[in-house]
Amino acid sequence: MSFGPDDFSALYARDADPWNYETSWYEARKRALTLTALTRERYARAFEPGCSIGVLTAELAARCDELLAWDTSEAALDAARGRVAAAGRDAGAVTFASGWVPAAWPGGRFELIVFSEIGYFLSRAELLEVRALIAASLAPGGELLACHWRHPIQGGELDGDGVHRLLEATPGLQPVVYHREADLAIDLWSRASDSLAQREGCYDG
């Protein structure tokens, strides 16, 4: 099974910070590790599906010329907008929108896609759809960063390790960062440039 927008709307109605992003040392340390895994100081265009209340979003905004942040909960999006504004980030650089992947996906290419703590809320079939969308929208040389809790999610079809195993098979991606702890998995993959992909294609042929 997978989760849907109504599940998250109900979740945020009960608790404004359901994963304790604002108070948990685990979450603070995880964000620091996530940001450290990024190989570039700045990215031209980035996408963060499942931005929640924007704690990571506010940090990413400082390193992106343009950041598209999605969530399915309007309450979470409102909190994220306020957090980014309070952090003094350029409001024009961050675009917030309501969206649920893979039912919707933004157009254009991205230098960075941050896929953090949402993969196990999807079914395996949905995650395979997301994988195809990532492959189609990641710019040459672009990066996919994934971060997930490694323990089972009640009601979910996949755990964090299962999510990362599927993502690592995304066509055209090469591993750059691999980090594992008892509770946490972080991976960063980079898409080969078009010229490299063409050379590899010629070699393989």
From TrEMBL:
A Pfam family it matches: NodS
InterPro entries assigned to the protein according to its UniProt record, in alphabetical order: SAM-dependent_MTases_sf (IPR029063), SAM-MeTfrase_NodS-like (IPR008715)
Keyword Aminoacyl-tRNA synthetase among UniProt keywords: no
Any one Gene Ontology BP term: methylation
UniProt KW keywords: Methyltransferase, Transferase
Signal sequence interval, chain numbering: none
Transport is among the record's keywords: no
GO terms assigned for molecular function: methyltransferase activity
Gene3D superfamilies given in the database record: Vaccinia Virus protein VP39
Full protein name: SAM-dependent methyltransferase
